[in-house]
Amino acid sequence: MKKLNLNYVKRKIYKALPRKIRFKVLAHFLPDIKPELDDFIFRTAVTPEDYLSAFNLVYKVFLKEKFIKPSPTPFRLAPQHCNEKSRVFIGIHNENNKEKIVYSISIFPDSNDGLPMDMVFNNELDQLREKGRYLVEAGHLAADSTCKLNTMHIPMLGNKILHQYASMHLDADDIVIAIHPKFRWFYEEFLLFEKIGEIAKYGYANDNPAVAMRLDLRTMKKRYCETFKNTPLNKSMYHFFFNVRSNSVFLPDEHTHVEKRLLENLKHMYGFGR
């Protein structure tokens, strides 16, 4: 007899509940959202070593998840990484005076070269562009599973620096993402993303299925305020994103610039733009 998958049953029961009740259940079981972590900093990648370490982390995580196939060059990056306004954000753990990159996420502003998602979700993105929306894509997210604090705390601080850059530095209208359907519930229920498309095979992710989602940054504050108004502060996304300052997140007030020489080296190494 086939063994009953309790997690599958739990997900089915959870989805059958009314949304307000689902949210209360979710908020109850999720850990507190920490605005800062001891011995961790989150900042912009600026050196070649930062970039290569981040790209290598993404490669290792994606390979383990079977989102990519093995490659002789153990790095994962996209042509849009060469855009001078694109950024790679990294989470660094300092243990015994030794630093290690344990988290990475990239952000790509829309441009004439398009976004990585355009290869399969071009129609969905064009519908937003036709409304005058300025899009930025978040992707290439990876977290080191060996890190002892690799719970939701690390990704949430990564989200915080990502949102700050998208809103304050790029003045974007929407963050768009392409994710595996198994992650959809969290982005939809807790981060308030909306589904805009879905495909069965995404070539860029080794033919895994993908869901396209967006977060409207223009209405985000109001929606988070309404959704989390009765939630304790230590579990409130509204409080985390809009009210509390994090000493673990370092994002300069002024626009930061990635060295053009580094961008040119990326183009040369991987043949982008040839």
Element layout with pairings:
Elements lengths: L5 H11 L2 H11 L10 E5 L3 H17 L22 E9 L2 E12 L8 H12 L5 E9 L9 H17 L4 E6 L4 H6 L4 E9 L5 E9 L3 H8 L9 H7 L16 H11 L4
Parallel strand pairs: 4-5
Antiparallel strand pairs: 1-2, 2-3, 3-4, 5-7, 6-7
Helix pairs in contact: 7-8
Number of strands: 7
- What is the general shape? globular
Order of helices and strands: HHEHEEHEHEHEEHHH
Please identify the top-level CATH class of the largest domain. Answer: Alpha Beta
CATH architectural type of the largest domain? 3-Layer(aba) Sandwich
Mean pLDDT: 86
* Major β-sheet strand ordering: 1-2-3-4-5-7-6
Largest sheet: 7 strands, mixed
Compute the CA-based radius of gyration.
19 Å
CATH topology of the largest domain, what is it called? Answer: Aminopeptidase
The termini sit apart by 57 Å
Describe this protein with a few key phrases:
274 residues; alpha+beta; Aminopeptidase; 7-stranded mixed sheet; 36% helix; globular
Outline the structure in words.
The protein starts with 5 loop residues before the first helix and ends with a helix. It has 274 residues and is an alpha+beta fold. It is globular. Helix 7 (220-227) packs across helix 8 (237-243). Strands 1-2-3-4-5-7-6 form a 7-stranded mixed sheet, with helices on both faces. 36% of the residues lie in helices and 22% in strands. The chain folds into 2 domains: 1-30, no CATH class; 31-270, Aminopeptidase (3-Layer(aba) Sandwich).
Compact overview of the structure:
The model has no long low-confidence stretch (mean pLDDT 86).
